[in-house]
Amino acid sequence: MTHTASSRSQEQGVGASTPRPDGTLKVTGEFAYSSDLYLADMLWGATLRSPHPSAWIRAVDIGAALAMPGVHAVLTHEDVPGRKFYGLEHKDTPVLAIDQVRYQGEPVAIVAADHPETARRAAAAIRVEYETREAVTDARRALFDPASPNVQPGGNLVRHQPVRVGRIPEAGTPGAAEVLVTGEYEVGMQDQAFLGPESGLAVPAEDGGVDLYIATQWLHVDQDQIAPCLDIPKDRVRLYLAGVGGAFGAREDLSMQVHAALLALRTGRPVKMVYGREESFFGHVHRHPARMRYEHGATRDGRLVHVRAEIILDGGAYCSSSPAVVGNAASLGVGPYEVPNIEIDAYGAYTNNPPCGAMRGFGAVQACYAYESQMDRLAEACGIDPVEIRVRNAVSQGSRLATGQVIDSPAPLADMLRELAAMPLPAAEPSSDLRSLPGGVAQTTHGEGVRRGVGYGVGIKNICFSEGFDDYSTARVRLELLGGALHVQVHTAAAEVGQGLVTLQAQIARTELGVERVTVAPADTSVGSAGSSSASRQSYVTGGAVKTTCEAVRERLDKLRAEHAGRTLEDLVERFGPIEETREYRHRPTYPMHPVTGQGDSHTQLALCVHRAVVDVDVELGLVKVVELAAVQDVGKILNPVALEGQIHGGSAQGLGLALMEEIQVRDGRVLNPSFTDYLIPTILDMPPMRLSILENPDPAAPYGLRGAGEPPTLSSTPAIVAAVRAATGLPLARIPLRPQDIALT
């Protein structure tokens, strides 16, 4: 191999802003998403869903649907050949409702027909006799009221995780807090709002199995759940990653995967299922809404003495990933602050509300809003600047988390806060451009009634899976000679969901092997599991797997070079054939939290981000314009600068949405706004300019020293924006998203 080729490969290696191979296709509309899949003889699937949040099913009549021309199958739970339940952590979710429904939108029956409209009409023709019953919709009542009906047979508690550190001194005793602030906070139900709705294509195979082309976040866990329900061996359920139009956690759980597979095996024809936007709101999990009570005690100079908290997370009708969400909320419930005495109780509840599960920053986002709101209240009570009170209590390397885990890598939070506070503020006077004012081009104001506020937010997020989960990834790397030039193929099952992992895998291969031509094979289940594209883990574990496997290939190359001195690598690969290696990569072990004290080294890695928000608020109409977001984030090692900036911008946008506009409105268990007309997400006009400072303080335990970066900005952006609105209005604002009626002063 020549030095020139090696130089070119390094220009596109780790640390470079290597372009995304799918970027041009996506912006020009040529990229094939899962909803674009097509086979000439395919059928179309549709789902009949419950209109009730809680009811007994007394009868199901499919006769009229079956009699319709063009209908090839109508299936209920009686047609599920294997296990009738699936689930990420507990197998509690019915493939199709059996004797009852526990939330509005629960699948009851599925249809396959030769046209999508025929399938929808057939589903509507199914007659279901329901006996409605009281819906359990208040999570606190579900947990603590003995008279509350049980949503699940074992009761309404998903998980209770206490955390106990030290002992909170009683008022008036030595060491007791001199300043005390309490607050109750509420976080609404946020949707992941990915643009590509659930979709996929199931194709029956000659061996009695099924090939499933699907947009998902975790191919192998889908396979593990689907195969037992179909009652066929796992190796006959082959999954291939189709184009994914966003995920953010909502594709961790099954949606239409098992339904399409059931219909394909019953009809012997390929079956495509595509949810419409309204159905998508019912077809996936959401962010857990939360109610939280916090008490912070401190000395008069703002040093934390204790934190007491109760965190109640509404998990909806089924378990999904609620246990992990509760664990995150409990373990990170005091934030990145040194607190000698802690008393936290975090609960996950079953209700008849829509199921909730993974969403970017899950568990940590809800707690962050509460503890950061408390830090601002404490700063005011102590008469201390909100940045300074955070600096005085900030963790650093060597500090202990609430779980007792020692932070054993750089955590320069105090320095990050000082840098953030020193950043220049935007111009004080609003622009004459109406788009820069609250209400925008609607001309609700020309500057009158507009007040400016500045606020800060700090967040700490765990990276990778926690609490003893066997978290690993597998990579297969093949070096061969194609067309007279060296070529590397990287194959993993890691889901590219828009975060740029395909680009990164190629960058790592170029860096480790010095080969310019690298192809990343489509992800599927023919290679070992790579785990989920969640928890900001793929750069860490799949990046680590690709790096480790490339090192194994390089070792074999070095051995050949030593045995055949003077030969080029091209000659060696041509003579001895392709070199291929497969390796698994695991991060250091983690351990479950103690069930009583919450102590334990439960997390792999921790990441910090701090935000400053500048907002203009029309206090007459309750409208908010975010003028600027500034952020400082420590990423350990920058692997792709442009992609990294995109992750910070994207995480901040979702945090802005949670602060100001995004909420699934649920009343008595019913969703009132399942559309992008009524569920609002930030657009380019809502996102302000961002000022970024990206720090590199390598984590010695991680590949290249990297630190997962996708989730932390989602945490800290929300409380920063709300703090800025508080500063402008003087209102307490204890619930998010903020609504105009919460803000307007007249």
What does this 3D model show about the protein?
It is a single chain. With about 750 residues, the chain is an alpha+beta fold. The chain is built from 18 helices and 28 strands. β11 and β12 (about 210-215) form a beta hairpin. α9 (about 320-330) packs parallel to α10, α10 packs across α11 and α11 (about 385-395) runs antiparallel to α12 (about 415-420).
Q: Indicate the mean pLDDT.
A: 96
- Characterize the biggest β-sheet: 7 strands, mixed
- Please give the radius of gyration in angstroms: 27 Å
Structural category:
alpha+beta
Distance between the termini: 73 Å
Helix content: 25-40%
Number of helices: 18
Spans of 5+ residues with little confidence (pLDDT < 50)? 1-5
Shape: globular
The number of distinct β-strands equals 28
Strand order of the largest sheet: 3-7-1-14-11-12-13
Instruction: Give the DSSP E fraction (strand runs of 2 or more residues).
Output: 15-25%
